[in-house]
C-alpha cells in the first residue's frame, strides 16, 4: 500500500485483518497502511487502532492529540552500577537547573535526603 494512503480504521481495518489473518502481524500492519514516511512499521499505532476498532477505549490516551510527547517523567531513578545517580533533563528543567551550573551536594544523614545547593546561593532540594 503506498505511503500516502490513509491508515485503515474501524470496520474497514477489522475486515482487512480478517482477510489476511493467516499472515504475520507485521505484514498485516503494512497492508493496512501502518507505515511511516521513512518506511518504518508503525506497529504500536496499528495495535492501538485494532483495540479501538474492537470497541475498547484505552484510558489515559487522547486520540486527538496531534503530537505525542516522549517518555514522561515518573520521578524515580536508581543508582547505576558505577555508583552514579542520573537525574535527567526532565527533572533538571523542572528545577530550573541550567547546563554548566555548579552545586554543592549536601546529604542529610538521618533521612538520606540529597540537596543540591547552587554555588550562586539559590536552594534547590532534590
From TrEMBL:
Question: GO terms for molecular function, please?
Answer: DNA-binding transcription repressor activity; transcription cis-regulatory region binding
Listed transmembrane segments: none
Naming one, the record's GO cellular component terms include: protein-DNA complex
Q: Which PANTHER family match?
A: SLL0359 PROTEIN
Name the chain's protein: AbrB family transciptional regulator
Write down the species.
Candidatus Synechococcus spongiarum
Amino acid at each position: 500500500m503506498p505511503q500516502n494512503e490513509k491508515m485503515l480504521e474501524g470496520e474497514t481495518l477489522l475486515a482487512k485483518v480478517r482477510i489476511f489473518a493467516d499472515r504475520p502481524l507485521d505484514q498485516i500492519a503494512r497492508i493496512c497502511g501502518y507505515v511511516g514516511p521513512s518506511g518504518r512499521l508503525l506497529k504500536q499505532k496499528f495495535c492501538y487502532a485494532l483495540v479501538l476498532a474492537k470497541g475498547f477505549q484505552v484510558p489515559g490516551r487522547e486520540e486527538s492529540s496531534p503530537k505525542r510527547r516522549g517518555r514522561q517523567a515518573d520521578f524515580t531513578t536508581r543508582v547505576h552500577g558505577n555508583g552514579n545517580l542520573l537525574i535527567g533533563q526532565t527533572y533538571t528543567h523542572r528545577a530550573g537547573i541550567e547546563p554548566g551550573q555548579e552545586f554543592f551536594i549536601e546529604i542529610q544523614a538521618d533521612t538520606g535526603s540529597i540537596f543540591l545547593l547552587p554555588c550562586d546561593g539559590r536552594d534547590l532540594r532534590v
